[in-house]
Structure formats: C-alpha cells, structure tokens
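hey so i finally got around to running the thing on that chain from the lab meeting. sorry it took forever, my laptop kept dying and i had to restart like 3 times. anyway pasting the input first so we r on the same page abt which one it is
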Amino acid sequence: MTYALVFSILQPLEDAVRWLLFRFHYNVGLSWAWSIVATTVVVRIVLVPLTVRQIHSMQSLQRHAPEMKEIQRKYKGDRQKLNEELMKFYKENHINPAASCLPLVAQLPVFFALYLVLRHFERYVHAGADLSWLHFVPSIAKNANTHWSGYLLLAIYAGSQVLSSYFMSTTMDKSQRIIMMIVPLIFISVVAHFPTGLVLYWVTTNLWTVGQGLITRRLVPKTPLPSFSAKRSSRAPATAPAPAAASTGDGVRSTPPKPKRQPSPPRRVKRKKGGPRR
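ok and heres what got predicted. didnt touch it at all, straight out
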C-alpha cells in the first residue's frame, strides 16, 4: 500500500523524466546513456537558484562560525538552552542552516523517478536498442553488479562522491567533513543493486558539484572571518606617555631635551694576592 502511494505521487515526475529522455534520444540524437547525462545536466540547471542559496548559506555560516562556537562553548552543559540560543541566533542573522542541503533533497525525487523509468526501461525501447555507454557498460538498464564495467563505474562513483562531499562540507570542522566523505561510501553495496543508468546519473551530478565548487572558489571571493583585536591584559603595566612638546613664546614648539646619561661608576680592579715582593 505504501509503495503504491509513493509510486502514484512520483508518477508525474516519472513521466516527465521519461519524456525528457525520449526528447534527447529521438529529437537530439543522443544515445540512451548520454540522454541520462543530458537529463542530469538539465536537472542541475533547474536547481541553480537552490545552489546559489546553498553558497550564500555556507558563506554566512563561515562568517558567523566564531560566534556560534562561542554560543556552543557557553551553553555546552545545557542542550535545550543551546538549541534555543542557536535558533535565536539563526533568526537574528537570517541564517538557514538547512539551505546547504536543499539541492541534494530536491534531487531525491528525480533520483527515484529515474529509478522507476529504468526499472522497466526495456519495455519502452525497441528490441535491439543500444543501451550501452562508451562501449564498456553493456546496458544502463542492468544492475551495476552484473558486469565488471559496473564495478568500475562504482569506483568512479565513490571518487566523485568523496570529492563532492568535500566541496559541500567546507564550513564543517575536520571530523564532520571526514564523516561526510566516508558515510556515502558505506552505501556502495546498496548502489550496486541499482540500474547502471542510475549510477551514471549520480556520477554526473557529483562531477557537476565538483566543477561547481571549483568555479565557486575561483569566482566568489572568500568570506573573511571576523578579526578580534587582542585585548591588553589588566596585569600588563601601562606604558608611560611620551612627554609633550613645550611651546615657546614666539609660537615655536620646542622638544624637551633628552635626559642626560648618568655616568657609570668607575670600575674597581681587584688586586691579586701574593704579588711580587720588592
């Protein structure tokens, strides 16, 4: 019952993805595999506004990172108070921490819709249709674990996933970034049971994310972190102010004379005992 409800909700999106694949194949003349790549590019172009919001959100988080760390340090013993203060801080500074995940969340329905299309893809194409990709993936409709080329594509997927996670987690600390890059690799055994065309879709979107991160780093200026001036300790002795210049009667300011150097006392030479007798 649940699966039927999910499929019925995704049915319009499934039809849209199938229509787009058909247009790229029959009207543009691309192969079925390259039609999936072109469809992925179209999806990422549509998601550009969400991507811009993601970049702005990451920059805002980076700009206010020292203040948020101070709040975490102050309320580290009270979890509820910490969450309240962070939510208040987000609201005051117009920060949406969930904006960095919007492109990924928006792609999930497309991912499932493409899965539904590829699940019975051979029903929609004529017999003997070329479903290969680059002459080493025999069929985009077969599962990735049914051919050695599928495992090679899974290795490419793993590398692209690590790189895309690296660019998506630039505002996180080192431990969180490592987790973000390792966790997706755990699902390789699950991804291996998906159609190869679906793995091709995810590799393409990962490479798009990597290219987007490189372009963003080059074109978008880095947000400078707020600099905090070092405060002078109350225990440190205050330096004496320099004497002000004295004013003479004719309006000419004369500098005070430098203090004379006190002569050092004469050095006393100690005679050695047992000197030569006269």
